[in-house]
Amino acid sequence: MKIIQFNSDNANHQAFTEELNQRVNSYFKERKISMRGNIALYVKAMIMLAIYIGAFVLIMSTSMSLWWALILTVIMGIGEAGIGMSVMHDGAHGSFSDVPWINKLATSTIVILGSNAVNWKIQHNFLHHRFTNIYGYDQDIQTKAVIRLSDHAPLKSYHKYQHIYTFFFYGLMTLSKLIGDFPQLRKFTKEGLTRQQHIDTKKEWAKLIGIKTIYLFLFIGLPLWLTDYTWWQILLGFVVMHFTAGMIMSTIFQMAHVVEGAEQPLPDSHGVIHMEWTVHQLHTTSDFAQNNALLNWYAGGLNFQIEHHLFQQISHIHFQNIAPIVNELTEKYKLPYNVKHTFASALKSHVQRLKELGGHSNEI
After folding, report:
1. For residues 348 and 364, is the Cβ–Cβ distance under 8 A?
2. Is 124 part of a structural domain of the chain?
3. Residue 362 lies in a domain
4. Which pTM was predicted?
5. Which residues touch 103 (CB under 8 Å, ≥6 apart)?
6. What is the structure's pLDDT at 1?
7. So what's the pLDDT on residue 363?
């Protein structure tokens, strides 16, 4: 894979980067607090895990109608998404705790999504964060089956309707990972990304097969063995759980990068983007609903995506406090700071972009 370089001789951009890092570092030093998680984050992690595991235990141990069981699978899906966004995500970035093994433990909760950490770290930590919204590099804006997420991707006639059908396919996100992890790991290996990350590919293949086998045994095999539900009822509940989690996570992730004002630049013929990497993040990323307390708590700070992209090593529990610093400095240096002030406005903007990417005019 050809590595893109970020290179700028713009003194304004360089000054912004320097002052931003200085101001944010001072914020933590002056308060004598860690950039990583704290007791509030650990309590939230326990709550998310309790929601997910508690609902599963009730299904397994209590006699109830199919409808009540399906409600509990929806609750499991809500917990699954919460774990992915608030626990696993910070752990994978090393920002959940100051203690490395606790970060690894938080990262390992990705097995609850039926996936594995290596694929996630290559796709998300390396490709998405390093090459944000760059077509051909950032996997998050690659075409997903029938969903066109980039201006630079081939346009098909059916994309005209993607603003209608996309959210259904968002619900298939975690389900698709159950199978999709295998060709993805093969692709990363073929492109040399696993070697670049010093990953033992044979070991990862064995772990991946083992994780999937145990996961399917726990969430399909055990209910078949220990409950009175039929095979189709168990499969239905499994799909409902994953559909709920996939819908939540996909929508929140895409509202940070596939919205109005989030650019999708391409490098020049020499593989260079003539911009500071920090400024590139401002041009390609969006915050939304910054004052929504429930969303801030549940979504793991993913609605503060600008702050997250600028400071991956900082836990999401701090984003609301450092956002004013970022906003102030973008105004000072006359740089973009793309914010959708409510969840509804961000969702509307995402639908608008889906329409534009599908070949519609700019009217929603």
Report:
1. yes
2. yes
3. no
4. 0.92
5. 90, 91, 94, 95, 96, 97
6. 65
7. 45
